Amino acid sequence: MYPPRTRNSRQTPCEQCPLRHLPTFREFQPEELAFVSHFKTGELSVDAGTTVLSEGSHSAHLFTVLSGWGFRYKMLGDGRRQILNYIMPGDLVGLQGSLMGEMKHSVEALSALTLCVFERERLGQVYRNHPDLAFDVTWIASQEERILDEHLLSIGRRTALERAAYLLSFLSQRAAASNLFRGERVSIPLTQQHVADTLGLSIVHTNKTLKKLAERNLIRWADRGCDVLDPEGLMRAADWDGLEAVRRPFI
Amino acid sequence: MYPPRTRNSRQTPCEQCPLRHLPTFREFQPEELAFVSHFKTGELSVDAGTTVLSEGSHSAHLFTVLSGWGFRYKMLGDGRRQILNYIMPGDLVGLQGSLMGEMKHSVEALSALTLCVFERERLGQVYRNHPDLAFDVTWIASQEERILDEHLLSIGRRTALERAAYLLSFLSQRAAASNLFRGERVSIPLTQQHVADTLGLSIVHTNKTLKKLAERNLIRWADRGCDVLDPEGLMRAADWDGLEAVRRPFI
DNA sequence: CGGGCCCTTGAATTCTCTCAAACAATGTGG
DNA sequence: CCACATTGTTTGAGAGAATTCAAGGGCCCG
Protein backbone atom coordinates (compact mmCIF):
# COMPACT_ATOMS: atom_id res chain seq x y z
CA MET A 1 0.00 0.00 0.00
CA TYR A 2 2.74 2.48 0.78
CA PRO A 3 5.02 3.57 -2.03
CA PRO A 4 8.79 3.12 -2.36
CA ARG A 5 10.15 6.09 -0.43
CA THR A 6 8.60 4.96 2.81
CA ARG A 7 10.19 4.12 6.09
CA ASN A 8 8.47 2.58 9.01
CA SER A 9 10.70 2.50 12.02
CA ARG A 10 10.90 4.27 15.32
CA GLN A 11 12.79 7.49 14.94
CA THR A 12 11.81 10.39 17.16
CA PRO A 13 11.12 9.40 20.76
CA CYS A 14 8.13 11.27 22.17
CA GLU A 15 10.37 12.65 24.89
CA GLN A 16 12.16 14.60 22.18
CA CYS A 17 9.08 15.43 20.13
CA PRO A 18 9.68 18.85 18.57
CA LEU A 19 6.00 19.71 18.89
CA ARG A 20 5.86 19.34 22.64
CA HIS A 21 7.24 22.77 23.33
CA LEU A 22 5.21 24.77 20.85
CA PRO A 23 2.94 27.24 22.62
CA THR A 24 -0.01 25.86 20.64
CA PHE A 25 0.03 22.55 22.41
CA ARG A 26 -0.60 21.69 25.99
CA GLU A 27 2.07 20.24 28.25
CA PHE A 28 2.24 16.55 28.94
CA GLN A 29 2.43 15.04 32.41
CA PRO A 30 5.51 12.81 32.67
CA GLU A 31 3.40 9.68 33.08
CA GLU A 32 1.28 10.58 30.06
CA LEU A 33 4.40 11.11 28.06
CA ALA A 34 5.62 7.70 29.07
CA PHE A 35 2.36 6.12 28.02
CA VAL A 36 2.17 7.91 24.68
CA SER A 37 5.74 6.94 24.01
CA HIS A 38 4.78 3.34 24.64
CA PHE A 39 1.61 3.74 22.56
CA LYS A 40 3.63 4.90 19.56
CA THR A 41 4.86 1.99 17.52
CA GLY A 42 6.78 3.71 14.79
CA GLU A 43 6.94 6.43 12.21
CA LEU A 44 5.79 6.67 8.64
CA SER A 45 7.34 9.09 6.20
CA VAL A 46 5.90 9.60 2.77
CA ASP A 47 6.51 11.87 -0.18
CA ALA A 48 4.19 14.61 -1.36
CA GLY A 49 1.30 13.22 -3.36
CA THR A 50 1.16 9.90 -1.53
CA THR A 51 -2.20 8.57 -0.45
CA VAL A 52 -1.76 7.73 3.22
CA LEU A 53 -5.23 6.38 3.89
CA SER A 54 -7.94 5.61 1.41
CA GLU A 55 -11.68 5.60 1.47
CA GLY A 56 -13.01 2.10 1.86
CA SER A 57 -9.91 0.71 3.52
CA HIS A 58 -9.66 -0.70 7.03
CA SER A 59 -6.50 0.69 8.52
CA ALA A 60 -5.03 -0.87 11.63
CA HIS A 61 -3.38 2.40 12.49
CA LEU A 62 -3.98 5.75 13.98
CA PHE A 63 -1.59 8.61 13.31
CA THR A 64 -0.42 11.92 14.61
CA VAL A 65 1.23 14.27 12.17
CA LEU A 66 4.79 14.94 13.19
CA SER A 67 5.73 17.16 10.27
CA GLY A 68 4.37 18.23 6.92
CA TRP A 69 0.98 18.92 5.39
CA GLY A 70 -1.79 16.83 4.00
CA PHE A 71 -5.51 16.88 3.36
CA ARG A 72 -8.56 14.74 3.85
CA TYR A 73 -10.96 14.36 0.94
CA LYS A 74 -13.89 12.45 -0.44
CA MET A 75 -14.80 11.71 -4.02
CA LEU A 76 -17.97 11.05 -5.96
CA GLY A 77 -18.22 8.18 -8.42
CA ASP A 78 -17.41 10.35 -11.44
CA GLY A 79 -14.28 11.84 -9.93
CA ARG A 80 -15.54 15.06 -8.43
CA ARG A 81 -13.43 15.69 -5.36
CA GLN A 82 -14.12 17.62 -2.18
CA ILE A 83 -11.31 18.47 0.18
CA LEU A 84 -12.74 18.30 3.69
CA ASN A 85 -9.92 19.66 5.76
CA TYR A 86 -6.18 19.99 5.97
CA ILE A 87 -3.93 18.13 8.38
CA MET A 88 -0.79 19.53 9.91
CA PRO A 89 1.59 18.87 12.80
CA GLY A 90 -0.14 17.74 15.95
CA ASP A 91 -3.30 16.57 14.16
CA LEU A 92 -4.74 13.16 14.82
CA VAL A 93 -5.44 11.23 11.62
CA GLY A 94 -7.54 8.14 11.09
CA LEU A 95 -9.62 8.26 14.25
CA GLN A 96 -12.83 7.62 12.34
CA GLY A 97 -11.35 4.51 10.83
CA SER A 98 -10.06 3.32 14.19
CA LEU A 99 -13.39 3.75 15.89
CA MET A 100 -15.66 2.57 13.16
CA GLY A 101 -13.63 0.28 11.00
CA GLU A 102 -13.89 1.50 7.46
CA MET A 103 -12.42 4.79 6.33
CA LYS A 104 -14.99 7.03 4.68
CA HIS A 105 -12.47 9.52 3.40
CA SER A 106 -8.95 9.49 2.02
CA VAL A 107 -5.85 11.30 3.19
CA GLU A 108 -3.13 12.55 0.87
CA ALA A 109 0.23 14.14 1.60
CA LEU A 110 0.63 17.68 0.32
CA SER A 111 4.30 17.87 1.21
CA ALA A 112 6.69 15.30 2.58
CA LEU A 113 4.82 14.04 5.60
CA THR A 114 5.94 12.22 8.72
CA LEU A 115 3.38 10.49 10.89
CA CYS A 116 3.68 8.87 14.29
CA VAL A 117 2.00 5.47 14.13
CA PHE A 118 -0.22 4.03 16.83
CA GLU A 119 -1.95 0.67 16.88
CA ARG A 120 -5.67 1.12 16.93
CA GLU A 121 -5.92 -1.94 19.16
CA ARG A 122 -4.27 -0.03 21.93
CA LEU A 123 -6.76 2.79 21.83
CA GLY A 124 -8.80 0.89 24.42
CA GLN A 125 -5.91 1.21 26.86
CA VAL A 126 -6.12 4.96 26.55
CA TYR A 127 -9.72 4.88 27.69
CA ARG A 128 -9.14 2.35 30.45
CA ASN A 129 -5.95 3.76 31.91
CA HIS A 130 -5.65 7.38 30.88
CA PRO A 131 -8.92 9.23 31.21
CA ASP A 132 -7.25 12.56 30.64
CA LEU A 133 -5.83 11.42 27.34
CA ALA A 134 -9.18 9.88 26.42
CA PHE A 135 -10.77 13.22 27.12
CA ASP A 136 -8.22 14.82 24.85
CA VAL A 137 -9.10 12.44 22.03
CA THR A 138 -12.73 13.49 22.34
CA TRP A 139 -11.68 17.13 22.49
CA ILE A 140 -9.78 16.71 19.26
CA ALA A 141 -12.70 14.99 17.53
CA SER A 142 -14.99 17.74 18.73
CA GLN A 143 -12.64 20.44 17.52
CA GLU A 144 -12.56 18.87 14.08
CA GLU A 145 -16.34 18.93 14.11
CA ARG A 146 -16.26 22.66 14.85
CA ILE A 147 -13.98 23.31 11.96
CA LEU A 148 -16.17 21.29 9.64
CA ASP A 149 -19.14 23.34 10.83
CA GLU A 150 -17.36 26.50 9.79
CA HIS A 151 -16.33 24.99 6.45
CA LEU A 152 -19.93 24.00 5.85
CA LEU A 153 -21.11 27.53 6.57
CA SER A 154 -18.45 28.76 4.22
CA ILE A 155 -19.26 26.54 1.28
CA GLY A 156 -22.98 26.76 1.80
CA ARG A 157 -23.44 30.45 2.42
CA ARG A 158 -20.35 32.49 1.70
CA THR A 159 -19.76 33.98 -1.76
CA ALA A 160 -16.80 32.77 -3.78
CA LEU A 161 -14.70 35.72 -2.68
CA GLU A 162 -15.62 35.28 0.97
CA ARG A 163 -14.94 31.57 0.78
CA ALA A 164 -11.49 32.06 -0.64
CA ALA A 165 -10.72 34.72 1.95
CA TYR A 166 -11.89 32.41 4.71
CA LEU A 167 -9.84 29.47 3.48
CA LEU A 168 -6.61 31.36 3.10
CA SER A 169 -7.08 33.05 6.42
CA PHE A 170 -7.87 29.74 8.07
CA LEU A 171 -4.84 28.03 6.58
CA SER A 172 -2.48 30.80 7.47
CA GLN A 173 -3.70 30.86 11.07
CA ARG A 174 -3.36 27.13 11.40
CA ALA A 175 0.06 27.30 9.83
CA ALA A 176 1.10 30.01 12.24
CA ALA A 177 -0.06 27.90 15.19
CA SER A 178 1.93 24.94 13.92
CA ASN A 179 4.97 27.06 13.29
CA LEU A 180 4.87 26.32 9.62
CA PHE A 181 5.67 29.69 8.20
CA ARG A 182 8.57 30.49 5.95
CA GLY A 183 8.81 34.20 6.63
CA GLU A 184 5.57 35.85 5.60
CA ARG A 185 4.71 33.00 3.35
CA VAL A 186 2.50 30.07 4.17
CA SER A 187 4.63 27.25 2.99
CA ILE A 188 1.89 25.01 1.72
CA PRO A 189 2.52 23.52 -1.67
CA LEU A 190 -1.08 24.18 -2.55
CA THR A 191 -2.22 24.38 -6.16
CA GLN A 192 -5.26 26.32 -7.27
CA GLN A 193 -6.85 22.96 -7.98
CA HIS A 194 -6.65 22.19 -4.27
CA VAL A 195 -8.18 25.53 -3.43
CA ALA A 196 -10.96 24.89 -5.95
CA ASP A 197 -11.66 21.44 -4.54
CA THR A 198 -11.85 22.90 -1.05
CA LEU A 199 -14.13 25.77 -1.96
CA GLY A 200 -16.45 23.75 -4.17
CA LEU A 201 -15.62 25.90 -7.20
CA SER A 202 -14.19 25.23 -10.64
CA ILE A 203 -10.54 25.90 -11.12
CA VAL A 204 -11.22 28.69 -13.60
CA HIS A 205 -13.47 30.55 -11.25
CA THR A 206 -11.08 29.96 -8.39
CA ASN A 207 -8.33 31.56 -10.40
CA LYS A 208 -10.47 34.62 -11.09
CA THR A 209 -11.49 34.84 -7.45
CA LEU A 210 -7.91 34.66 -6.19
CA LYS A 211 -7.03 37.36 -8.66
CA LYS A 212 -9.67 39.61 -7.10
CA LEU A 213 -8.21 39.01 -3.64
CA ALA A 214 -4.82 39.88 -5.05
CA GLU A 215 -6.19 43.08 -6.64
CA ARG A 216 -7.45 44.09 -3.22
CA ASN A 217 -3.94 43.56 -1.85
CA LEU A 218 -5.08 40.89 0.56
CA ILE A 219 -2.89 38.13 -0.82
CA ARG A 220 -0.30 37.47 -3.46
CA TRP A 221 -0.45 34.16 -5.25
CA ALA A 222 2.86 32.67 -6.13
CA ASP A 223 3.80 29.32 -7.52
CA ARG A 224 1.99 26.74 -5.37
CA GLY A 225 1.09 28.83 -2.42
CA CYS A 226 0.32 32.34 -1.38
CA ASP A 227 1.50 35.19 0.76
CA VAL A 228 -1.06 36.63 3.09
CA LEU A 229 -0.52 40.37 2.87
CA ASP A 230 -3.36 41.49 5.11
CA PRO A 231 -4.54 38.89 7.62
CA GLU A 232 -7.17 41.11 9.21
CA GLY A 233 -8.44 42.25 5.82
CA LEU A 234 -8.95 38.62 4.87
CA MET A 235 -10.90 37.91 8.02
CA ARG A 236 -13.05 40.95 7.46
CA ALA A 237 -13.66 39.96 3.86
CA ALA A 238 -14.81 36.56 5.05
CA ASP A 239 -16.83 37.76 8.07
CA TRP A 240 -14.86 35.27 10.12
CA ASP A 241 -13.63 35.59 13.70
CA GLY A 242 -10.54 33.47 13.37
CA LEU A 243 -9.36 30.50 15.34
CA GLU A 244 -9.43 30.59 19.09
CA ALA A 245 -6.05 30.97 20.69
CA VAL A 246 -6.24 27.99 23.03
CA ARG A 247 -3.55 25.53 23.84
CA ARG A 248 -4.86 22.37 22.32
CA PRO A 249 -4.15 18.84 23.42
CA PHE A 250 -2.28 16.47 21.23
CA ILE A 251 -1.24 12.89 21.48
CA MET B 1 -33.40 32.02 28.23
CA TYR B 2 -36.05 29.37 27.75
CA PRO B 3 -39.53 30.44 26.71
CA PRO B 4 -42.78 30.03 28.62
CA ARG B 5 -43.86 26.55 27.63
CA THR B 6 -40.82 24.94 29.14
CA ARG B 7 -40.60 22.38 31.90
CA ASN B 8 -37.43 21.32 33.60
CA SER B 9 -38.03 18.41 35.90
CA ARG B 10 -37.13 14.77 35.98
CA GLN B 11 -39.73 12.76 34.11
CA THR B 12 -38.61 9.63 32.31
CA PRO B 13 -36.19 7.48 34.31
CA CYS B 14 -33.45 6.05 32.10
CA GLU B 15 -34.52 2.59 33.10
CA GLN B 16 -37.74 3.21 31.21
CA CYS B 17 -36.19 5.12 28.34
CA PRO B 18 -38.23 4.33 25.23
CA LEU B 19 -35.12 4.52 23.06
CA ARG B 20 -33.26 1.78 24.86
CA HIS B 21 -35.00 -1.01 23.02
CA LEU B 22 -34.83 0.36 19.50
CA PRO B 23 -32.70 -1.85 17.27
CA THR B 24 -30.68 1.20 16.24
CA PHE B 25 -29.14 1.61 19.65
CA ARG B 26 -26.81 -0.61 21.56
CA GLU B 27 -27.75 -2.25 24.82
CA PHE B 28 -26.68 -0.81 28.14
CA GLN B 29 -24.97 -2.78 30.88
CA PRO B 30 -26.95 -2.50 34.10
CA GLU B 31 -24.18 -0.59 35.83
CA GLU B 32 -23.88 1.83 32.92
CA LEU B 33 -27.58 2.36 33.02
CA ALA B 34 -27.38 3.13 36.70
CA PHE B 35 -24.61 5.65 36.09
CA VAL B 36 -26.36 7.36 33.21
CA SER B 37 -29.50 7.55 35.26
CA HIS B 38 -27.50 9.30 37.95
CA PHE B 39 -25.77 11.49 35.37
CA LYS B 40 -29.11 12.73 34.10
CA THR B 41 -30.36 15.67 36.10
CA GLY B 42 -33.64 16.44 34.42
CA GLU B 43 -35.58 16.96 31.26
CA LEU B 44 -36.21 19.94 29.08
CA SER B 45 -39.24 20.16 26.83
CA VAL B 46 -39.62 22.97 24.36
CA ASP B 47 -41.99 23.91 21.56
CA ALA B 48 -41.19 23.91 17.88
CA GLY B 49 -39.22 26.98 16.90
CA THR B 50 -37.48 27.38 20.24
CA THR B 51 -33.77 28.09 20.28
CA VAL B 52 -32.34 25.53 22.67
CA LEU B 53 -28.71 26.60 22.51
CA SER B 54 -27.26 29.65 20.91
CA GLU B 55 -24.00 30.54 19.29
CA GLY B 56 -21.82 32.49 21.66
CA SER B 57 -23.44 31.15 24.83
CA HIS B 58 -21.76 29.09 27.51
CA SER B 59 -24.18 26.37 28.43
CA ALA B 60 -23.67 24.38 31.58
CA HIS B 61 -25.55 21.48 30.06
CA LEU B 62 -25.20 18.60 27.75
CA PHE B 63 -28.28 16.97 26.24
CA THR B 64 -29.53 13.80 24.68
CA VAL B 65 -32.61 14.05 22.50
CA LEU B 66 -35.40 11.98 23.95
CA SER B 67 -38.04 12.85 21.38
CA GLY B 68 -38.62 15.26 18.53
CA TRP B 69 -36.51 16.94 15.87
CA GLY B 70 -34.21 19.89 15.72
CA PHE B 71 -31.30 21.27 13.81
CA ARG B 72 -27.90 22.83 14.37
CA TYR B 73 -27.02 25.96 12.41
CA LYS B 74 -24.62 28.83 12.09
CA MET B 75 -25.22 32.31 10.79
CA LEU B 76 -23.17 35.00 9.12
CA GLY B 77 -23.33 38.60 10.26
CA ASP B 78 -25.89 39.61 7.65
CA GLY B 79 -28.31 36.82 8.47
CA ARG B 80 -27.35 34.15 5.96
CA ARG B 81 -27.98 30.84 7.68
CA GLN B 82 -26.45 27.43 7.14
CA ILE B 83 -28.08 24.38 8.67
CA LEU B 84 -25.25 22.04 9.64
CA ASN B 85 -27.12 18.92 10.64
CA TYR B 86 -30.34 17.67 12.13
CA ILE B 87 -30.77 16.21 15.59
CA MET B 88 -33.16 13.44 16.49
CA PRO B 89 -33.78 10.92 19.26
CA GLY B 90 -30.62 9.45 20.71
CA ASP B 91 -28.39 12.29 19.51
CA LEU B 92 -26.00 14.02 21.87
CA VAL B 93 -26.34 17.79 21.78
CA GLY B 94 -23.99 20.43 23.09
CA LEU B 95 -20.83 18.37 23.40
CA GLN B 96 -18.74 21.04 21.70
CA GLY B 97 -19.92 23.60 24.21
CA SER B 98 -19.25 21.26 27.12
CA LEU B 99 -15.73 20.49 26.02
CA MET B 100 -14.69 23.88 24.84
CA GLY B 101 -16.82 26.36 26.65
CA GLU B 102 -18.45 28.56 24.09
CA MET B 103 -21.03 27.27 21.63
CA LYS B 104 -20.10 28.00 18.05
CA HIS B 105 -23.44 27.03 16.62
CA SER B 106 -27.09 27.27 17.63
CA VAL B 107 -29.70 24.57 18.03
CA GLU B 108 -33.38 25.06 17.25
CA ALA B 109 -36.36 22.78 17.74
CA LEU B 110 -38.19 21.74 14.57
CA SER B 111 -40.96 20.03 16.43
CA ALA B 112 -41.81 19.77 20.09
CA LEU B 113 -38.54 18.52 21.54
CA THR B 114 -37.69 16.77 24.77
CA LEU B 115 -34.10 16.63 25.92
CA CYS B 116 -32.46 14.74 28.77
CA VAL B 117 -30.25 17.16 30.66
CA PHE B 118 -26.77 16.35 31.96
CA GLU B 119 -24.42 18.60 33.89
CA ARG B 120 -21.30 19.22 31.92
CA GLU B 121 -19.36 19.23 35.17
CA ARG B 122 -20.05 15.55 35.56
CA LEU B 123 -18.63 14.68 32.16
CA GLY B 124 -15.28 14.16 33.86
CA GLN B 125 -16.77 11.34 35.89
CA VAL B 126 -17.66 9.55 32.69
CA TYR B 127 -14.02 9.58 31.66
CA ARG B 128 -12.69 8.65 35.06
CA ASN B 129 -15.14 5.92 35.96
CA HIS B 130 -16.76 4.65 32.78
CA PRO B 131 -14.23 4.16 30.02
CA ASP B 132 -16.75 2.37 27.84
CA LEU B 133 -19.14 5.29 28.00
CA ALA B 134 -16.27 7.68 27.38
CA PHE B 135 -15.41 5.66 24.32
CA ASP B 136 -19.00 5.98 23.21
CA VAL B 137 -18.89 9.75 23.54
CA THR B 138 -15.89 9.80 21.25
CA TRP B 139 -17.62 7.42 18.87
CA ILE B 140 -20.58 9.75 18.69
CA ALA B 141 -18.39 12.80 18.05
CA SER B 142 -16.57 10.89 15.36
CA GLN B 143 -19.81 9.78 13.74
CA GLU B 144 -20.98 13.37 13.60
CA GLU B 145 -17.72 14.23 11.91
CA ARG B 146 -18.39 11.59 9.28
CA ILE B 147 -21.79 12.96 8.55
CA LEU B 148 -20.41 16.46 8.25
CA ASP B 149 -17.82 15.11 5.81
CA GLU B 150 -20.60 13.77 3.63
CA HIS B 151 -22.59 17.01 3.89
CA LEU B 152 -19.50 18.92 2.86
CA LEU B 153 -19.03 16.69 -0.17
CA SER B 154 -22.65 17.25 -0.98
CA ILE B 155 -22.70 21.01 -0.77
CA GLY B 156 -19.31 21.39 -2.36
CA ARG B 157 -19.57 18.99 -5.23
CA ARG B 158 -23.05 17.68 -5.80
CA THR B 159 -25.44 19.49 -8.17
CA ALA B 160 -28.59 21.04 -6.75
CA LEU B 161 -30.66 18.01 -7.72
CA GLU B 162 -28.16 15.56 -6.27
CA ARG B 163 -27.91 17.57 -3.09
CA ALA B 164 -31.64 17.58 -2.56
CA ALA B 165 -31.82 13.86 -3.28
CA TYR B 166 -29.02 13.24 -0.79
CA LEU B 167 -30.60 15.32 1.94
CA LEU B 168 -34.04 13.77 1.69
CA SER B 169 -32.56 10.32 1.50
CA PHE B 170 -30.35 11.03 4.49
CA LEU B 171 -33.21 12.40 6.56
CA SER B 172 -35.55 9.58 5.75
CA GLN B 173 -32.92 6.99 6.65
CA ARG B 174 -32.16 8.70 9.92
CA ALA B 175 -35.85 9.02 10.64
CA ALA B 176 -36.36 5.33 9.94
CA ALA B 177 -33.54 4.44 12.32
CA SER B 178 -35.08 6.59 15.04
CA ASN B 179 -38.52 5.19 14.40
CA LEU B 180 -39.82 8.55 13.42
CA PHE B 181 -41.99 7.62 10.50
CA ARG B 182 -45.67 8.27 10.22
CA GLY B 183 -46.49 5.57 7.68
CA GLU B 184 -44.55 6.27 4.48
CA ARG B 185 -44.10 9.85 5.43
CA VAL B 186 -41.10 11.38 7.12
CA SER B 187 -42.76 13.33 9.82
CA ILE B 188 -40.41 16.27 9.88
CA PRO B 189 -42.08 19.62 9.95
CA LEU B 190 -39.53 20.87 7.48
CA THR B 191 -40.16 23.91 5.33
CA GLN B 192 -38.51 24.48 1.98
CA GLN B 193 -36.64 27.29 3.67
CA HIS B 194 -34.98 24.71 5.91
CA VAL B 195 -34.11 22.59 2.91
CA ALA B 196 -32.67 25.63 1.17
CA ASP B 197 -30.57 26.58 4.19
CA THR B 198 -29.24 23.04 4.40
CA LEU B 199 -28.38 22.76 0.73
CA GLY B 200 -26.86 26.20 0.41
CA LEU B 201 -29.43 27.23 -2.21
CA SER B 202 -32.03 29.97 -2.44
CA ILE B 203 -35.57 29.08 -1.57
CA VAL B 204 -36.77 29.68 -5.11
CA HIS B 205 -34.24 27.37 -6.62
CA THR B 206 -34.89 24.81 -3.92
CA ASN B 207 -38.55 24.84 -4.82
CA LYS B 208 -37.76 24.24 -8.49
CA THR B 209 -35.31 21.49 -7.60
CA LEU B 210 -37.81 19.69 -5.38
CA LYS B 211 -40.32 19.94 -8.19
CA LYS B 212 -37.90 18.12 -10.46
CA LEU B 213 -37.48 15.33 -7.92
CA ALA B 214 -41.26 15.11 -7.72
CA GLU B 215 -41.56 14.97 -11.53
CA ARG B 216 -39.23 11.99 -11.47
CA ASN B 217 -41.50 10.33 -8.94
CA LEU B 218 -38.79 10.17 -6.30
CA ILE B 219 -40.62 12.25 -3.72
CA ARG B 220 -43.86 14.07 -3.16
CA TRP B 221 -43.70 17.36 -1.31
CA ALA B 222 -46.59 18.04 0.94
CA ASP B 223 -47.22 20.77 3.43
CA ARG B 224 -44.09 20.94 5.60
CA GLY B 225 -42.50 17.67 4.77
CA CYS B 226 -42.24 15.09 2.07
CA ASP B 227 -42.99 11.51 1.20
CA VAL B 228 -40.11 9.50 -0.10
CA LEU B 229 -41.61 7.49 -2.95
CA ASP B 230 -38.45 5.79 -4.15
CA PRO B 231 -35.68 5.51 -1.53
CA GLU B 232 -33.26 3.68 -3.81
CA GLY B 233 -33.94 6.05 -6.67
CA LEU B 234 -33.03 8.95 -4.41
CA MET B 235 -29.78 7.32 -3.37
CA ARG B 236 -28.92 6.61 -6.98
CA ALA B 237 -29.73 10.18 -7.97
CA ALA B 238 -27.36 11.39 -5.24
CA ASP B 239 -24.59 8.83 -5.83
CA TRP B 240 -24.77 8.06 -2.12
CA ASP B 241 -24.36 4.73 -0.37
CA GLY B 242 -26.65 5.41 2.55
CA LEU B 243 -26.06 5.18 6.25
CA GLU B 244 -24.40 2.16 7.72
CA ALA B 245 -26.71 -0.15 9.56
CA VAL B 246 -24.79 -0.34 12.82
CA ARG B 247 -26.14 -0.28 16.31
CA ARG B 248 -24.89 2.99 17.63
CA PRO B 249 -24.14 3.89 21.20
CA PHE B 250 -26.15 6.49 22.99
CA ILE B 251 -26.02 8.01 26.41
C1' DC C 1 13.87 20.45 -27.17
C1' DG C 2 9.59 18.36 -25.84
C1' DG C 3 6.34 17.11 -22.33
C1' DG C 4 4.02 17.87 -18.24
C1' DC C 5 2.17 20.69 -14.82
C1' DC C 6 0.34 24.91 -13.32
C1' DC C 7 -1.52 29.38 -14.03
C1' DT C 8 -4.12 32.69 -16.88
C1' DT C 9 -7.60 34.58 -19.98
C1' DG C 10 -11.71 35.03 -23.10
C1' DA C 11 -16.19 33.53 -24.67
C1' DA C 12 -20.32 30.98 -24.68
C1' DT C 13 -23.38 28.37 -21.94
C1' DT C 14 -25.67 26.87 -17.88
C1' DC C 15 -26.94 27.40 -13.27
C1' DT C 16 -28.60 30.02 -9.56
C1' DC C 17 -30.11 34.26 -7.54
C1' DT C 18 -33.09 38.20 -6.81
C1' DC C 19 -37.22 40.48 -7.63
C1' DA C 20 -41.98 40.32 -8.11
C1' DA C 21 -46.33 38.50 -7.88
C1' DA C 22 -49.85 35.27 -6.88
C1' DC C 23 -52.02 31.34 -4.51
C1' DA C 24 -53.26 28.07 -0.80
C1' DA C 25 -53.86 26.96 3.89
C1' DT C 26 -54.31 28.43 8.49
C1' DG C 27 -55.57 31.19 12.29
C1' DT C 28 -57.52 35.46 14.47
C1' DG C 29 -60.63 38.96 15.71
C1' DG C 30 -64.80 41.11 14.83
C1' DC D 1 -69.20 33.37 9.43
C1' DC D 2 -66.34 36.61 7.04
C1' DA D 3 -62.32 39.83 6.53
C1' DC D 4 -57.74 39.92 7.10
C1' DA D 5 -52.97 38.79 8.23
C1' DT D 6 -49.51 35.34 8.24
C1' DT D 7 -46.88 31.67 6.60
C1' DG D 8 -45.43 28.56 3.14
C1' DT D 9 -45.40 27.33 -1.66
C1' DT D 10 -45.34 28.25 -6.62
C1' DT D 11 -44.14 30.62 -10.99
C1' DG D 12 -42.02 33.86 -14.39
C1' DA D 13 -38.52 36.92 -15.85
C1' DG D 14 -34.20 39.29 -15.86
C1' DA D 15 -29.68 39.75 -13.71
C1' DG D 16 -25.74 37.81 -11.91
C1' DA D 17 -22.59 33.99 -10.77
C1' DA D 18 -20.15 30.02 -11.99
C1' DT D 19 -19.25 26.39 -15.33
C1' DT D 20 -17.31 24.43 -19.45
C1' DC D 21 -14.62 24.82 -23.48
C1' DA D 22 -10.64 26.45 -25.57
C1' DA D 23 -6.26 28.18 -25.98
C1' DG D 24 -1.92 30.26 -24.66
C1' DG D 25 1.99 31.19 -21.49
C1' DG D 26 5.55 30.13 -18.01
C1' DC D 27 8.37 27.00 -15.81
C1' DC D 28 10.90 22.89 -14.63
C1' DC D 29 12.95 18.57 -15.79
C1' DG D 30 14.54 14.66 -18.39
UniProtKB/TrEMBL annotation, chains A, B:
<dbReference type="InterPro" id="IPR036390">
    <property type="entry name" value="WH_DNA-bd_sf"/>
</dbReference>
<dbReference type="Pfam" id="PF00027">
    <property type="entry name" value="cNMP_binding"/>
</dbReference>
<keyword id="KW-0238">DNA-binding</keyword>
<dbReference type="InterPro" id="IPR018490">
    <property type="entry name" value="cNMP-bd_dom_sf"/>
</dbReference>
<dbReference type="GO" id="GO:0003677">
    <property type="term" value="F:DNA binding"/>
</dbReference>
<dbReference type="InterPro" id="IPR036388">
    <property type="entry name" value="WH-like_DNA-bd_sf"/>
</dbReference>
<dbReference type="Pfam" id="PF13545">
    <property type="entry name" value="HTH_Crp_2"/>
</dbReference>
<keyword id="KW-0804">Transcription</keyword>
<feature type="domain" description="HTH crp-type">
    <location>
        <begin position="158"/>
        <end position="232"/>
    </location>
</feature>
<dbReference type="GO" id="GO:0006355">
    <property type="term" value="P:regulation of DNA-templated transcription"/>
</dbReference>
<dbReference type="InterPro" id="IPR000595">
    <property type="entry name" value="cNMP-bd_dom"/>
</dbReference>
<keyword id="KW-0805">Transcription regulation</keyword>
<dbReference type="InterPro" id="IPR014710">
    <property type="entry name" value="RmlC-like_jellyroll"/>
</dbReference>
<protein>
    <submittedName>
        <fullName>Crp/Fnr family transcriptional regulator</fullName>
    </submittedName>
</protein>
<dbReference type="InterPro" id="IPR012318">
    <property type="entry name" value="HTH_CRP"/>
</dbReference>
